[in-house]
Amino acid sequence: MYNLPIDEIRKFFLIFNRPTFKNLWTLALLIRNSKSANLNQMKDEWAAVTGNREAKPDTVYKRLCRFFNRPDLSTLLNGIGLWIAYLFENQYATLALDRTHWELGSKQINLLVLSILWRGVAIPIAWVSLNKDGNSSQQERIELFRAVLKTFPLKNKTLLADREFLGEDWFRFLKEQEIHFMVRLRKDAYKHEIA
Q1: So what's the pLDDT on residue 32?
Q2: Is the pTM value of this prediction over 0.70?
């Protein structure tokens, strides 16, 4: 189960005790195995990940829910970003940029999300609330990437994005940062090379 260098990875989570880190690591393996962040699907992988075949699915589900009700969840999520940076620092990685819009009760949530694609799973490493309806602006994308670049090595990574993520300033920024990109273009989009 814990066959990666735990002490190396744990240096990004030193403010958390070992049991908390162990729960986080278990959660990461559950996501990997189930290829989902849906807790209901993740609970079915509990036995394969932990070796504990006696835990009841309802109990596992409640345990996973408790983990996400932590008061320090945002700090933990920042640690996850650093951990992912460690894992992919010297490896080829494909990035994906997307926007997700969903409702939480009567509240509308519109997020711009940057993920790493790994073995068929998109792992979010950074996101920002757009606080508006509709697409992100070029400047909002550039600001998200500037924040990520402070802790995450994106040079020579390849970014995949849909045609919602167009713009000459945006493309120029990616080139300046030496981030390769493949963005689906509209037929009438750009007729010249971005310098």
Answers
A1: 76
A2: no
